[in-house]
Specification:
Structural class: alpha/beta
Distance between the termini: 18 Å
Helix content: 25-40%
CATH superfamily of the largest domain: ATPase, nucleotide binding domain
CATH class of the largest domain: Alpha Beta
Order of helices and strands: HEEEEHEEEHEHEEEHHHEHEH
Length: 256
């Protein structure tokens, strides 16, 4: 009976996808990926400090009337729910205890993982890379660049290869090939694709994947963008689109 209760409890979990420009959240049936609540997509509106973002996350969760398990995908390195790096949100997040902040209204299961790792979990369990063998490279394209490697489903967490130095230009790789760089420099899709191709080759040479999964707003232009980049291996868009990060975080907390 205890095992049955645990399985029923974890059928539905809420996922939060916290990014550099906003957060998304919703609850899912983790075995199918089917949403089972309202969907929130909330921009940061300029301020990225915890004091600004966390109350709005809490309000959004309470708006859904949610009291079950919560998983969070965070844009940085995370270990045992502890934030180690937050390059696109700021140092105020370092060692910030999000679980403690939620404890005023939530006492259920909680976990926090890297946001790209969350996307990779969703896609491997239910999406584009479902049960694929070999090495899978997942790249998330947003305010920064996230990277995750899975080998036959086993994941190496917190790689953050987007923070590595660009092989040819000054600064980290993500400062030249992220969606933010495209917007700030007003690059055309063609111009940005040429830059991204260089970053893609860098990642491919570093990891030697058997398959690549791409995630981010660029998927809105996938039919065009996919024709502007190339690889020695198959490239697939994230099947779950904008929901992939939140879904992966929900799946992660269901495993506790």
């Amino acid at each position: 009976m205890k095992i049955l209760f645990r399985l029923l409890w974890f059928v539905r979990c809420l996922g939060v996808d916290l990014g550099g420009s906003g957060f998304r959240l919703g609850a899912f049936e983790v075995e199918t990926g089917i949403p089972c609540s309202g969907w929130k997509n909330v921009p940061h509106e300029g301020c990225t400090r915890p004091s600004s973002i966390v109350p709005r996350i809490i309000d959004s969760i309470q708006d859904l009337g949610w009291s079950g398990p919560i998983g969070v995908g965070f844009p940085g390195a995370v270990s045992k729910d502890r934030i180690l790096t937050a390059p696109n949100l700021g140092d105020d997040w370092l060692d910030f205890d999000l679980k403690e902040e939620l404890n005023d209204f939530h006492h259920g299961h909680f976990t926090m993982i890297n946001d790209c790792d969350a996307v990779a979990i969703a896609e491997y369990n239910l999406g584009s890379s479902r049960n694929k063998s070999g090495t899978i490279l997942t790249i998330t394209i947003g305010t920064g660049i996230g990277t995750t490697i899975q080998n036959d489903g086993d994941m190496i967490p917190n790689l953050e290869y987007g923070r590595l130095p660009h092989p040819r230009m000054e600064g980290p790789l993500e400062s030249h090939i992220s969606a933010r760089s495209r917007k700030e420099e007003k690059l055309s899709l063609q111009q940005w694709a040429e830059r991204f191709q260089e970053g893609l080759e860098f990642h491919e040479n570093l990891t030697e994947p058997d398959m690549i999964v791409l995630y981010g707003g660029i998927l809105e232009h996938w039919d065009t963008f996919s024709g502007l980049i190339s690889s020695n291996v198959k490239i697939e868009p994230a099947q779950f689109g904008a929901e992939a990060g939140a879904l992966g975080a929900a799946i992660a907390v269901s495993k506790l």
